[in-house]
Amino acid sequence: MALTVGTPAPPFEAEAHDGRVVRMADLVGKRRVVLFFYPKDFSFFCTREACGLRDVSLEAFARDTTFVGISRDSVERHRAFAQTHKLVFPLVSDASCRLGSLYQATSVIRSALGMLSRVTYVIDRRGLIQGVIEGDLTAKRHVDGVRELLPRLP
Predict the structure, then answer these.
(1) Beta strands of 89-128 (E only): which ranges?
(2) Among residues 9, 16, 34, 46, which one is catalytic?
(3) Structure confidence at residue 108 (pLDDT)
(4) If residue 44 lies in a helix (H) or strand (E), which one and from where to where?
(5) Beta bridge partners of 121
(6) pLDDT surpassing 80 at residue 109
(7) For this structure, is 51 an active site residue?
């Protein structure tokens, strides 16, 4: 099933770089969620995207939103990335591509390179997808899309 606006976000549970366990079931009914899948920590576009979303997560309209970054990088690399760029949200290592497959963030080329595709999901408090932002070679589209969509969600 294609993940499009209006479809339920697939449930998942994963441990983040800081030891937190992120469960979609714990967030539904309470918080909005921004799940952003990205190719590689410390790469140019991924760093711009993560830092841009960090800034969005600190804005007033995003206070009741949980941001989660997901890539195939290791937990150790995520720790270094988060520390270097002062990221305030959990980063999840998806080495097996389990979450990437579940959220359709894989491609043949990216998989061969050991990376996920860049795709961002904005999910409302009911657990329904309200935005799907795609585009591998742009961080701005993802950051601006989240910044535009979040204030419109209840």
Answers:
(1) 91-93, 119-123
(2) 46
(3) 65
(4) helix 44-57
(5) 35, 132
(6) no
(7) no
